[in-house]
Amino acid sequence: MKILVCIKQVPDMESHFRPNGSATWFDESDLAFRMNEYDEYAVEEAVRLKEQLGGAPEITVLSIGPDRVIEAIKKALAIGCDCAVHIKEPDVASKEPWQIASMIAAYARSKQFDLVFTGMQSQDRGSAQVGVLVAELLGIPSTTTLVGFAWADGVVTATRELEGGVKSKVRLKTPALVTCQLGLNSPRYPTLPNIMKARKKEITTLQAGELSSEKPLTGSAAFRHPEKRGSGVVLEGSVDELVEKVLVILKDKTAVLR
Amino acid sequence: MKLLLVGEYREGRLLDTTAELLGFAAAISGDASLFLVGSAEAVPAFSGTLYLADAKVYGEYNPEVHKQLLLKAVQEENPDLVVFVHSSYGWDLAPRVAASLKLAQVSEVIGFAGNAYEVGCCNAKMHRNVTPLTSKAVITIQAGAFPALQVEGTPSVKVLSTDAASTTEFMGYEPAEARDVNLAKAEIVVSAGRGIGKKENIELIRSLAKAFGGELGASRPVVDAGWIDHGHQVGSTGQTVTPKLYVACGISGSIQHLAGMKKSGFILAINKDKDAPIGEVADVLVVADLLQFVPALTAKLS
Ligand SMILES: Cc1cc2nc3c(=O)[nH]c(=O)nc-3n(C[C@H](O)[C@H](O)[C@H](O)COP(=O)(O)OP(=O)(O)OC[C@H]3O[C@@H](n4cnc5c(N)ncnc54)[C@H](O)[C@@H]3O)c2cc1C
Fold this sequence. Notes:
The complex is a heterodimer. Chain A is of the alpha/beta class. Chain A has helices spanning 37-52, 70-79, 97-108, 130-138, 192-198, 208-211, 239-253, and strands at 2-7, 9-11, 33-35, 58-65, 83-88, 115-119, 142-152, 155-161, 167-173, 176-180, 203-207, 218-224, 233-235. Chain A is globular, with a radius of gyration of 21 Å. In chain B, helix 3 packs across helix 4 (90-101) and helix 5 packs parallel to helix 8 (290-301). Chains A and B meet through helix 3, helix 4, strand 7, strand 8 and strand 9 of A and helix 4, strand 7, strand 8, strand 9 and strand 12 of B. Strand 13 of chain A pairs parallel with strand 17 (284-287) of chain B. The complex binds flavin-adenine dinucleotide. Flavin-adenine dinucleotide sits between chains B (123, 193-195, 219-221, 233-238, 250-252, 254, 256-257, 260, 270-273, 276, 289-291) and A (13-14, 182).
């Protein structure tokens, strides 16, 4: 059995974002990057399946981007993926979902993966498109927003999260692609011995341009802080001052404090 | 502009969000038709073409089958824009249709100007404009971004059918878990977010809730990490609350969390990040480390 996990590296969402020169996306300097949260669930689920099957499946982890993404790849290898593919694309921010999906599909097409795991979306772009587009390009069934996953005899049984706490159960035959939602499992932390072992695992580098030359289907502009809508006040200062101010406002503006 | 709106139907019922598609169509002054895998016995009030496939034949959501049906409607209608709600139905189906037609897709639209669509990014902290570079496009609209619109009229129905083979088998629904906490009735809700840092710090937030005489709520990561039961979760996949006072402690203000609490009477947010999007809905944003501020506030209240 062969498994592919697609991961993205995203900035820490607590960062202060500034637009790049053309305001198409953020300026990368000074940002700390980490593995997209949704993808951590994808890696964990793939590794759990490998463990369930006594270590038989081979898991390839794939990431597209500049050299910085190797850090996210190494984390996935330390968690239990077997080998990695780094699709080198220095200007990954200019690539939109269709182009990213085309690269992944071009790589995966001849590899006969039985299962592909992705996050349901990225924390930064949040398009929720790439996973499904990859499946469509590969012509394999897919399902999204998984909060439950089981595999037996070539059949995936998936629990999808719908709205308001309702879930649906679906079954699909492999080869298939699934996109993972927060809470699907509890992602583990890599242990030191596994981090050491991961150093010996192979990372293959491919050039993005050799995989796909698809043109973008969308353009991006005016990356900005949202216009402030409310009339809210921002309070800064020492904790004691802040507490006093907040109590005055709550007494004045709400009926909950007497 | 010709729009094809993709309505949602589940277990014999048209979902309310379908009215938001009509709200979007009105906002953009589009000429709308509607696609629905639903029932001929309960067609929605609407004056325009309704492309209808029978839910009794095609079942609950089935990606491949719904895609083929929708592609037929697109072929007949030739719309400029296919519009979905950004929901578990829309974000699953939209890319399939976009891929089949090789059209641009813009996800989770909250506004528009000309042919540019405004969307959130970086967990709602930033916005940007996305422009389709194909002459026709597929979009999903953010739930709640466009006001629901009730319209009159009787649609002219065009029945769709397909013999497309299903690739996923629908097994059934699991209802929402029963809740032991009812946040919906609480006058004060004090919620813990990932910013509390670790499980033990829930107690700080619990003490503040107690001091206020309110209930304890939480954002999703706090629930997913197992720090508190799901019954406490506020948001699109948790509970919707409208207390007189909502206190968000270490919560960034993602759209899914806001969906569950933005109608609260007064919102107090405590966050060490001045740019956190919770500031957009907060009446007061206290920029502070909650580990210091929360105990200090609790002490003053008690
Ligand atoms: C389909 C779907 C459904 C979802 N449903 C829900 C839902 O129902 N409810 C929900 O909440 N989420 C939901 N989410 C998840 C949502 O997108 C966010 O990931 C989540 O709300 C983030 O929770 P948070 O704000 O607690 O954490 P984060 O986004 O990580 O924010 C933590 C915040 O704490 C602040 N902070 C950190 N340390 C401190 C400190 N010491 N003092 C003060 N502030 C501090 C940080 O500045 C940051 O703003 C859903 C997501 C999807 C895709």
